[in-house]
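Re: the 463-residue chain
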Amino acid sequence: MADEENAETGNYQQLISVSPAPINLFDASGEIIWGNDAVLDLLGLDSRDQLIGRSIFEFIVSDDRYTAERELVDVVETKTATGPTQMQLRRADGDTRSIQVSTAPGRYQGRDIGQAVVIDVTELERTREELETERQFITDALDALPDVFYVITPGGELDRWNDSLLEVSGYDAAEVRAMDIEDFFAEAHTDRISESIATAFAEGTDTVEATVVTKRGEEIPFEFRKRRLVDGGDVIGLAGIGRDISERKARERHLRAVDYLLQHNLRNQLNIIQGSVESVSDDGTEGGRSAADRIDAAADRLLSIFDNHHLIVDQLTTPQSAEPIDVVAVVEALAEEYGEAYPAATIATDLPERAVVSAMPTLRLALRELLENAIEHNDRREPRVDVAVENTGSKVDIRVSDDAPPIPEMEYRSLADDSLLHSTYHSTGFGLWFVHLVVRQSGGSLHFDRGETRGNVVTIELP
């Protein structure tokens, strides 16, 4: 019988010795009877002699010893398996490890024992803590945003949001969780919100303006941008930002009001002035004709300023997006048009076959403004304008060179630095302001240089 038990013990030891998981055997007092090599590695022991005969509680940190003692009673005395239970143990070198312990009753060398299978989860816990720290950092960062952040599920439900949504809407988290997305908006705008969500899921991105109605009934204009979230090829939702555009809308209304006021008053009064020029010039005197010419030129100038102001207002207030534009085709068409309109001028071009940029549709008007300025502000009888387009692969340069008098610095320095503007230092018109605005909104830059011998070189760089 003893031989059978010894053989069984040997087979059992051989079985657990090859296990990669630490397995420890202990008696009713917690004294270690035997452990495999994985236990020695876990505890930082050099040999089994350093393990057998010691109490398992020596290796359990004080905060977890009560839990370990309770489980010992369950396993050895009541024959009840326990775990997996999270604990902390301290190795021989003082290092603390996080473990999960599953224990079960058993028999070893004729006596009741407990057998524990241990999993070292230290690295897993560290990774979990790092992920939790990172998650908290992201949450704190999103909550710090003044804009509303949100995530929408593929089913069209609001899944996640930052504190700004609660602050703006006036609803608490429980109320938001129970609401449909459309509930946050004016009834007239719910359809456009639904359509925008569908478009973003289908096309990857979308932007929409809509009026948010708060819990207090306040209406706030917002712009919502959203982008599709993909994980391994599967669409898992939409992430987006909502921005209060109240101030922007107020500026747009002001610009429109000024534009309409100028259109109604300035244009009408200038038309009256131009209509009266003829009667002034009919007095037959040289002075009368000269005065009439000056009046007519001033009226034309003011009308031109108004027209450019109107272009800027449209550029700032009309929603538009960049589109592919072949600047070569645009320059060729403008060179032909102005060649016919100004037969005394020479308009030369140096163009590649094609140069496509992503720019605002009004880039055509901006190039027209530069070409027209180069001709009309030239004091030569036969002005010359050279337009060159260079496609470097990463960007496209458009250079308009002329042989006109130098452009005054105040006409362009204030474009990039509005702190220079004051009552005696400002541009005399809005043409270059319009060009600068279009180029900037197209993601490009505008540069002004002197010609090598005379004239100006205006360069537009577009990505």
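Residues 1-5, 419-427 have pLDDT under 50 and may be disordered.
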